[in-house]
Amino acid sequence: MSKQIALLRGINVSGTNKIPMARLREVLTDRGYANVVTYVASGNVVFDDPGTATEKTAVGIASAIQEEFGLDIPVIVRTRDEIAAVIDGNPLPEGLAEPAKFVAVFLSAQPKNAWFVTDDPKKYEPDQYVIADRVVYMWCPGGLGRSKLAANFANKKVPFTATARNWNTVLKLLELADEA
Fold it and tell me: Which range is the signal sequence, renumbered to this chain (predicted)?
C-alpha cells in the first residue's frame, strides 16, 4: 500500500498551537487513517494512502484537528512518490553538505505572483533558492536564523499555505513512508 505524508504548519512552536503527537495519532486513526506514524513534534504525519486526493486528505486532517483541538492548522499532504520526487529533483546539491541549513518549503499551490517569484534571488546571496513544482528549495549556508531569505519565507504573506522542512526531515519522511 502506498503512503501519504501530512505536513502541519506552525504547531508546537514556542508553546503555541500545541498538539500532542500521541493524541493526534489517535484522532487520525479514529478518522479512518491507518498505520499513522508521527515524526518529531513539528507536525509530520505518515499514514496509509486513504485512496483520496491529497487535497481532500488535507482538508479532512485540518477538520479533524479543528474539531479535536480547536485549532485552525493549515495542512499540506503529499504522496510518498511526491516526496521522493522532491528528493530526486534537488537542484541545489551543495545544500546536501549542510542538511540543517537546507530546506524544502512545501506549497499548497504553484506560486504565480508570490514575493519569491518576483524577487531577484541574487539579492539574498549567499543564500539560494529554486522554485519547482509546489516546492521551493532553499539553502542558507550562513544558517537559517541569520538568513533574510528564511525570515521572508517565515514572515511574508503568500496567498497559499507554505511550510518548511529541513532536508534531514524530508529524507526521514521518505524513509518512514517506505517502511512496511
Answer: none
- Helix %, strand %, coil % of the chain (to 5): 40, 25, 35
Q: Phi and psi (nearest 5°) for 141?
A: -60, -20
Last residue of a domain, one of 79, 95, 123: 79
Q: Which of 42, 64, 79 is the last residue of a domain?
A: 79
Is residue 82 over pLDDT 90?
A: yes
Compute the distance between CA of residue 109 and CA of residue 106 in angstroms, rounded to an integer.
9
C-alpha cell at 155: 514572515
Q: Where are the alpha helices (DSSP H) in the chain?
A: 21-30, 54-69, 80-88, 115-118, 148-155, 167-178
| DSSP assignment letter at 144 | G
Query: pLDDT tens, 25-73?
Result: 999 999 999 999 999 888 899 999 888 999 999 999 999 999 999 999 9
Which residues constitute the domain of residue 14?
3-79
Query: In this predicted model, what pLDDT tens digit does every residue of 90-116 receive, in sequence order?
Result: 999 999 999 999 999 999 988 888 888
CATH number of the domain bearing residue 74: 3.30.70.1280
Q: Is the pLDDT of residue 2 over 90?
A: no
Domain count, the chain: 2
